[in-house]
Amino acid sequence: MSRIGVFVCHCGLNIAKTVRVSELAEFAATLPDVVVAKDYKFMCSTPGQEMIVNDIKQHKLDRIIVTACSPLMHEQTFRKVLTASGLNQYLLTIVNIREQVSWVTHDIEEGTAKAKALLNGAVYRSRLLVPLTSRVIDVNPNVMVVGGGIAGIQAALELANTGKKVYLVEKNSTIGGHMAQFDKTFPTLDCSACILTPKMDAVLQHKNITMMTSCEVSEVKGFVGNFDITVRQKARYVDHSKCNACLACTEKCPGKGISEWDESLVKRKAIYIPFPQAVPQKPIIDKESCTFFKKGKCRLCEKACEQKAIDFEQQDTFVQVKVGAVILATGFDLMDTKPLVQYGYGKYPGVYNALEVERLFNSAGPTGGKVTLRDGSEPKSIAILHCIGSRDKNNHEHCSRVCCMYSLKFAHLFKEKTSADVYHFYIDMRAAGKGYEEFYNRIIEEDVKFIRGKGARVAQSADEPGRLVVEAEDTITGKFIKLPVDMVVLSPAIVPRADARDIARLFNLSTDKQGFFMERHPKLAPLSTMSEGIFIAGVCQSPKDIPDTVAQAYGAAAEALTIVVRDKMELEATTAMVNPASCCGCQNCVRVCPYGAPSYNAEKKVSEINEALCKGCGLCASVCPSSAIIARHFTNDQVLAEMEGLMEF
Amino acid sequence: MSFEPKILGIACNWCTYTGADLAGTTRLQYPQNLRVVRVMCSSRINPSFIFRAFQLGADGVLIGGCHPGDCHYNTGNLYARRRLAVTKKILEFSGLEPGRFRVEWISASEGNKFAEVVTEFTAQIKSLGPQTKFKISQ
Amino acid sequence: MTISFKQIEEKLKTEAKRLLESGQASVVLAYGKGYDEKHPMPYVARNPSDVANIVFNEYCNYNMARYLVRYPAGTKIAVAVKAADSRAVIQLIQEEKVKREDLVLLGIPVYGMKNPKTQEIIDGKTTGGLYNPVLYDILLGDEVHGQAIQSPYDVLAAYELMDKEARFAFWKKEFDKCIRCYACRKACPMCYCDPCFIDQNKPKWGDKSPQSHGNLMYHLTRFHHLAGRCIDCGECSRACPVDIPLYLFHKKVAKECEEMFGQAAGMSIEDKPALVNFRVDDSDKILE
Amino acid sequence: MLKKTTIDKLPELAAALMEKGTLVAPVKEDAGFNFREITDAKQVDLIFHNTIISPKSAFFPQVEDFVRYQTGKSILEAAPVELNLKPTFLFGVRPCDVKSFQIMDIHFSGTGVVDPYWQKRREATTIFGFAFDMNEAADAAEFYHTLGIGAADPEGSDIFMVRKDDILMLKVITPKGEKLMTGLSFLTDASADEIKYFDDYITKGYDYKTCYTCVDTEAIAREFEAIFDNADFWTKISDACLSCGVCTFVCPTCYCFDICDETLFSQGTRRRVWDACMFTDFTLEASGHNPRTKVYQRLRQKVCHKYSYHIRKYGVISCVGCGRCTRYCPVNIDIFSIVEEAVKAKWYKRL
After folding, report:
1. Are A19 and A108 in contact (CB under 8 A)?
2. Residue to substitute from D73, D264, D265, D287, interface A, most A β-carbons within 10 A
3. Which of A275, A284, A280, A282 lies closest to A193 in space, CA to CA?
């Protein structure tokens, strides 16, 4: 016989509006082994928690059921209440009557009936719960940051400054990310390089940061506090331990590759650094464009290198890194707008995407900061088309959030650097942010023309060869417009990195509909994920501007720190175990476990589970024909009992 | 009174249960006939749970898991897919209406899919009427 | 061609004797005399002198693979296997319950075996549609050729045509007969669990008393446990004292598994049991 | 008093008995005959050899509900299940099976601890014994004659029946039978020839199909005791045994049971369910220890219980030679041949 306490939360009116909470508590009191049942306005509040603490003492409760919001929300809160009252935290059951009852119905009869059924299931289950003891493990104090953009850089610096060792993994040959491509940043128009490069340099100099450029994570093992990560160091063909960054090699190189950094607007050498302020400032060889790799002859760089750092034999290597927590800051890609043929990107030379334009403005860019068309002429009129592929149900439903602002920035820079007329084609102007509306007003006053209507088509001008015509409906006047321009700038949707899903799989993350990494909770846990010890920062979570990204980086660093600051930590105790008396030795568990936790003891003829490797999915328990495997907290009898309770009323 | 079926849902913690929460957070409305058991992974679902659910009087059983390939435990739902497919065939050959058992992959971000599936499945179970074949008569 | 049961019996005796004398096998699992000719028994020969007791006739349906797990690991066992029996051996090898190197398979190519209760010829009904062993070391006779090959699933047709109401009524009547003697699971070469799930008290999957619901739970779960593993020997049905045609249900599940997973049970020792395996490209259609 | 009727008038007799109470009689089913409560007088079928399940189920059903209870209350609510028995007529029981009731009586009432369920059912029931058809081919599995039971042995029946072609003769054996028979007015008196046929038939039954005579029970008990520890012997005997429960479930003298609490939605029933010593979990102790993990230990228990311990304790073999265990054994283990083997093994040892 157990002594169950049931605590029904109103959640203000969130629950009470469509579930008769007092009736639910009265009903609970009639259920088996329920000793006390109460309802209260906010169970998660301090008085609510105290009510539970007092009742545990007064009524000698040994099982607690909290009938409230989703367990994903407050399970931890109430577990702490149990622990504080001397009860094992696993004797708590949460009944989700908010997200899965009160919020999905308007009918109080239906809501109350369903809440009763769910509560009854919880009572049946609760009676069979057993105290579980968590495992205590040593925590590795190091952190890995994946992605060397502004988010990764900031997070790495913060953590390193606390004295923790940080591995910063970047797939490119330099850190810096997209921000290093920009010229100015909105709304303050301060120079991107001026604020970023000192940080990049700080990373390079920091004794606690191991920078791993040209690297990709290839395997993730282990669990929170003890990740064991394999990183693939891609062959650079330049031994960076020998290279003194004299860059003599780059001068001699006859190879021509396309500069990814300059968004393919210009060519670069086969041995190169992406841009002058790159960190590290040591070159790599692009195998695709290298004459030696292509033709078997050349090696001019090798001859030029006094340090003998060139190594054509270099292979990819694999480095094992052990860390306690991981921050993912893998950033974004711009949507490929070529498939949107109506905009003529890739077809008409006068159509650019936003990142290309960023490079045009940049003094270190292909044009040395001059705004010229591909033929070298200066545009006389420029159209900036917002929301290309975003806020578009046929492509990406989400708003990319920064396009309005950077488009305004573009307008300003166009005005500054050219005498062109600048037109915005927009759906709405979204300028929510500190100083943003003010920036918008300033641009309006700069004689930039705003046409409220989404650019529908970009076509070649029939009258003036070489010019383009932007077609749109001006939704203010209701008129259809055909505007001839020299240059069209597309502001495409910000989308997850092409390999975001692979990364999600590596780190066991969920992704949202667009493919951005899912946070544990959209409001209350925006930087943590469903995988313990893995945190996210920056645009890999969703489109955002630099201030927000940096803020997230600080936050993610603090989150990671909460783990690695400890020497030891407790793990979930909900692992599986084998009851040897029932094990028939079929080894199904050994065959199916994704983590290799079960093994077969041939001598005893039974399987055994290494709980340190078990993640508690319960797969082994369901393939065990003789029910010998006990999936703790989700045991067969607990699930069966819950089902029975759910189906009774 | 019209027939209000009892539907048992078994949802994985990481995708479908979270997706169900999302449906709530976004205030999507769907019928209240579904009662969800939370398990960590759809692969935890022992086929006998489903037989048992029907014996307990469930008019329908709905299983929700992560999309294949997106399993929080890498491969759990790939095993679950095979095992539950067999469960379905067994139920069918034993004479239970095949429409009473359904497996859906619903991700954590698919709150609308969750609501749609529940709405549609509930309507389907209503049209099938009460399940009496497996139900234990007391 | 016709089968000479006497000839097979002689070869079985000769080989058994040779294996026991040479020490290649310490036990020979074969068939022996029962209380009359129609009722032979499974027989274990341990000494060359035991070999005289070996018989083989059309009633020797027993799947001797069922006894393999009874012997300690490393025991050298010679086992007489007919077509379906050899598949049971393969399946047990896949499941690592026995090792190939510990076994000498005495293959028996045969047709025209009879159910002693009904005198009915069981070919095609419960032999997986095969006459020749899939795997053997020594073949006790010539391979059967020219005998009409029946699909093992032909007998299902009538049941598949039934509508769901008729199917339910059919199985309810059959399962209600069950007295829970568990002869089916005990006769099954693949049912080696001890304890069986249904014997468990925690969790209690189904009632122990032989009533409709407990019986249904026991049988459906057992069908699931044997999905992708049942090799269609039919021993469960023959063991049943109340004649529940369990083989039909097993066949149906086997057929579905073969269609869905592209693999029949016990056909190759390289296979992995279908339900503890997956392919990333398994179709979601199988859930429809 | 010998009465008679004809086989085609069997439904009439059945109907008359159904009017007086509950009729339990052999019914033809898919797999063979079984004793069932008759709902339609035409169901009764006497053209059978013997039933699959022994008629012990009439007094000791496979499932017997004892108590109904409700859980989830602070004090468990429970009420015993009352047996409301009407007069019962167990019709067409073979002589060996009738004999089995006397053996079972030892356990359910004879030791002084009376099982009320068994006792009430026994008291409410009138047994119609039914002689084997001696014109029928011998069944190789049976050996009741070896145990001294005649093929037409009326002992233990209240009314004993012999069939001669289309005629069914019924003879009162006990006062209980007589009371009933007087109420069955449509039965006619048998002729003198028929009375002679009946008496001869009973006498002839003691010689019918006899292959062994005069079993020395004391000697058998001793032989088994001597080979109890001979693991080689028992292993060989049990080589084929699957350890299933068929033999015990069809056996008329197996009486082991389990008590199960079966609960659903807080409503539960405590019931008695047949168990079998051949099941592994039969001897599984709460500690997890199991004294009989090997098949041979379980088969030895079954055989020795019937042919050794039972003799020592109660003086009689706990077997009536009905042959069901052998007939329905999936691997054709013949219990009496084990007894023969045991005796031989002993002799062999002595030499």
Report:
1. yes
2. D265
3. A275
Say if residue D197 is in the same domain as residue D291: no
pLDDT band at residue A571 under the 50/70/90 scheme: confident
The answer as to whether B95 is a domain residue is: yes
Domain CATH for B76: 3.40.50.960
Question: CA of B65, closest CA in chain A: separation in Å?
Answer: 12
Are residues D194 and D244 located together in one domain of the fold?
no
Provide residues of C within 8 Å CB-CB of chain B.
159, 164-172, 197, 205, 212-213, 216-217, 220-221, 223-224, 227-228, 249, 252-253, 256-257, 260-261, 274-280, 282, 284, 286-287
In SS3 terms, D307-321 reads as HHHHHHHHCCCCCCC
Q: How far is CA A249 from the centre of its chain?
A: 38
Cα separation, C118 vs C104, in Å, equals 32
Q: Is the pLDDT of residue D347 over 50?
A: no
Cβ within 8 Å of B, D 236-275:
264-265, 267
Query: Considering the domain boundaries, does residue B137 fall inside one?
Result: no
Token pair in block for residue D161: 């029946």
Which residues 534-593 of chain A have a CB within 8 Å of chain B? 574, 592
Q: Determine whether the interchain pair C208/D273 forms a contact, defined as Cβ–Cβ distance below 8 Å.
A: yes
Task: Judge if A547 and A617 occupy the same domain.
Answer: no
ipTM: 0.91
Q: What is the pTM of this model?
A: 0.80
Mean pLDDT for A188-205 is 94
Q: Which two tokens stand for residue C66?
A: 């069922």
Residue D171 domain flag: yes
Q: Please give, rounded to a whole number of angstroms, the shortest distance from the CA of A646 to a CA of chain D.
A: 10
**D158-172 confidence digits (pLDDT tens):** 999 999 889 999 999
| CA atoms of A176 and A170, how far apart (whole Å) | 9
Rounded CA separation A259/A172 (Å)? 13
Residue A13's domain comprises: 4-132
How many angstroms separate the CA atoms of B41 and B72, rounded?
A: 8
- Confidence class for position A468, pLDDT limits 50, 70, 90: very high
Question: Which has the closest alpha carbon to A222: A533, A593, A613, A576?
Answer: A613
Three-state DSSP state, C259: helix
Residue C195 has its nearest CB partner, among D248, D276, D280, at D280
User: Residue C181 and residue C210: Cα distance in Å, rounded?
Assistant: 9
Q: How far apart are CA C265 and CA C231, in angstroms?
A: 6
Decide if pLDDT at D346 tops 70. Answer: no
Contacts of D193 (CB under 8 A, 6+ apart): none
Sign of CA dihedral D56, D58, D63, D66: negative
Are residues A588 and A558 located together in one domain of the fold? no
The neighbouring-strand residues paired with C190 are none
Query: What would the pLDDT profile of A197-220 be if each residue is shown by its tens digit?
Result: 999 999 999 999 999 999 999 998
What is the number of other CB atoms lying within 10 angstroms of the CB of residue B82? 24
Mean pLDDT of chain C: 92
Domain assignment of residue A373, yes or no:
yes
* D55 and D151, same domain (yes or no): yes
Residue D263 lies in a domain: no
A98 to chain B: closest CA residue: B24
Pick from D246, D250, D332: CB nearest C41: D332
pLDDT digits (tens, 9 = 90+) for A616-638: 999 999 999 999 999 999 999 99
Task: Give the CATH number of the domain where residue A612 resides.
Answer: 3.30.70.20
**Domain of D282, in residue numbers:** 217-257+276-350
Inside any domain, residue A637: no
Cα separation, A448 vs A411, whole angstroms: 7
> What does the angle CA A495 – CA A498 – CA A501 come to, to the nearest 5 degrees?
95
Q: Is C204 within 8 Å of C195 (Cβ atoms)?
A: no
Q: Residue type at C248?
A: L
